[in-house]
Batch of 2 targets.
Target 1
Amino acid sequence: MSRSLGQLTVTSPAPGGGPGAGPGPHLPLFVLGTEADEHSERGVSCPGELPSPSDPALVRRAEQARDELGDRAFILGHHYQRDEVIGFADVTGDSFKLAREAAARPAAEYVVFCGVHFMAESADILTSDAQQVVLPDLAAGCSMADMATYTQVEECWEALEDLGVADDVVPVTYMNSSADIKAFTGRHGGTVCTSSNAQRALSWALGKGSKVLFLPDQHLGRNTAVLELGMDLDDCVVWNPHRPGGGLDAEALRKATMILWRGHCSVHGRFTADNVTEIRRRIPGVNVLVHPECVHEVVTAADQIGSTEKIIATIEQAPAGSAWAVGTELNLVQRLAAAHQDKTVVYLDKTVCYCSTMNRIDLPHLVWALESLASGQVVNRITVDPLTATQARAALDQMLALP
Ligand code: SF4
């Protein structure tokens, strides 16, 4: 890796890439706090005077600011957040549930989103103009969402047009994408999907066109296509935005049903089939439950696959005495283990891994955001421009209308 003050250039291999992975791209990154890239989630600045993490009054300060704000503020907490933050959430959930919860509370002038940047964007798109969405730390991005930039996706689409296949392609983007990518999808008649409704989204798209461009998580796209729609792995190709022509020849693109974007989640992409083998050896009779963002070899080795909400429901409904190894973000697994002590709930990997960007929202940032709002200063507001919001909203509305 070479480093200058303003930018980093990363040349290390991309982890968790599965099929299509290889030597890593030259990916420019901004050093946190030095510059901002308005067209992606990379390198956003992190302004402000934060309380010290060792301030013993942090909890009291958060409670006091929360009380002062009353119904004017609504705090959303994603399932992968730290305990110290989730304790202040008015509601917890996955990204789409949280955005809808915010929209359902128009009296809340401030929506404090304890999640990552694309989630706050979605909340801004779905809430009224009178509501302001605040992300307590602007550096809380999502590495997966960053793997599909607007320019890269436009280049891909132009290549499909040059090949004469774009009219057959329906774009489907995972909720975990920037507002720009959701807008691209809406503009081209596609839909957003979540990990809960990806199968319905793909079925709908393939009733409309003969191919899907699936953004940005190749694993959710592949796992859904193969395990839920019965496609072959050969029906899927991976578009690498860092190679000319996506690294694919015309014949491969013409033949493919699923054109998967070469993106992945840095948390779920870490789990391996060896983790599954090892945990079965260590805990005989264990049920392996993983998120569909895991690589194909992991989900095929697991006993059950489920979205974050489904993972929570599965553990809640499991009989006392049962044992579960869960392949998803560690904060959630730890909370599930603590809440269900009549069951064995363990993390699938021996090496612990939090979502590092999600974890940037900590108690000092929450206190800083709440105290600022209570004093009348709106900080770290996330806004999506009206045209992008309208086009992204079209793709979100299409998801809500999925049969
Ligand atoms: S867990 Fe993965 S997909 Fe979710 S915010 Fe973190 S990097 Fe992004």
Target 2
Amino acid sequence: MHLCVIGCGNVGLVTGACLAAAGHEVSCVDIDNERIARLNAGIVPIFEPHLDDILASARKGGRISYTADAGEAIRAGDVIFICVGTPPKDSGEADLSAIEHVARQIAEEARSAKLVVEKSTVPAGTGLMLQRALTAYSRGSKNFFRVASNPEFLREGTAVEDFFHPDRIVVGVEDEAAAADLREIYRPILERRFHCPLHNGVCPPGHNAAFLVTTLNSAELIKHAANSFLALKISYANVIADLCEKIGANVEEVTHAMGLDPRIGTQFLRAGLGFGGFGFPKDVQAFIHLAGSVGVDFDILKATERVNKQRIDVFLEKVRKALWVIKGKQVAVLGLAFKAKTDDIRSAPALEVVKRLLEEGAIVHASDPEAIPRTKALLPEVTYHDDPYEALKGADAALVFTESDIFRTLNWERAKSLMARGLVIDGRNLYSPQKMRELGLEYYSFGRE
Ligand SMILES: NC(=O)c1ccc[n+]([C@@H]2O[C@H](COP(=O)([O-])OP(=O)(O)OC[C@H]3O[C@@H](n4cnc5c(N)ncnc54)[C@H](O)[C@@H]3O)[C@@H](O)[C@H]2O)c1
């Protein structure tokens, strides 16, 4: 089976690269000609650990190709994975115009039967609309389109590992043949019968991924329900942190003990600046909108979103309280991306905080291991440094936004000697308050004394 991947963003590139590494032939297409030209020149347009090596080796082996010609890629693929963006509209509803555009292209360009697989995150009901659009746009042709949903659960920063070693692969189908085709495509991953480029062929023992076959609507719902639940956990931990600050308790002691209950689990119970990125904020909005559109009031998700938006205000309040006047103060921003090991700055809390500090007259110096090139174009007023110690020179305060190792392991004794004032406001609870104070630093974080 030849595979076609439409959309060469984070999900499309990881999908294409990993399925090629698992032995398939993959044609990738994107509407962005420049992106395709860069990929053809061997340049990977995003930062994702291991992705460049896997793409280079797939290219060398002739298993992956890139084109801006949608017709060529669509005709080559027996199975077409749609990986285009589904950003939010102002109303919070998912904007499905790219999906609709792709449906028209597939219907018009296909010359044989295709299995069309949604990998983009879409609201429940989209697959049925996609099926209808493919039929409508292919009027006159005898091509037969089957539609399936295969939601993607990868996390940026560990996307390649997540793709090769998933907890579960969900396929929502209308017919058994589609489920069988998808099982075949994922067979090398399910049976761990491929040379894993991450572990040099010897993967650590782990449980095998579950292959779950559901209806189209269920598969689409699973993705939104999963992401929204994780977002809810983060907001829950953040409210606990606020409570800890008022009452005088330590949020980490509380969430750690909570999480040891297997019904709760320790992950995603970390207090701090809240969630950002391309996934959670828009998926929560889209899920609230979807529920509202069928008369279900998803109040707890509305609260999740509200708590998350307030994190920026809570953080800025800490900055104002510590610095008093913002105007003219020099701040060192440590971390720009929405999380570590990615250059993705979409809905990154750091960017919102920096914009507000600039508006109030702060002088901002920033460092990030991956995201400086992307941020430069958006925030030209900021001075950027590859070396975090350079960003800290002369700073009145250091503001920590991501859990990158380079910040986690920073030598704060050295940093303090470079700063104008030893003030650290930590949006990710990276350091021990006691140790920071022993170093003579004024240190504030979330939910801890
Ligand atoms: N980024 C993640 O971590 C992640 C994880 C799971 C699921 N998802 C979902 O996957 C989808 C894609 O996410 P992403 O982060 O890769 O988005 P992205 O914005 O990085 O990439 C989308 C790509 O699609 C291309 N595109 C848009 N319209 C096109 C068209 N008509 N034809 C061909 N190419 C087109 C764009 O040029 C872009 O390169 C979204 O629905 C997202 O919610 C993302």
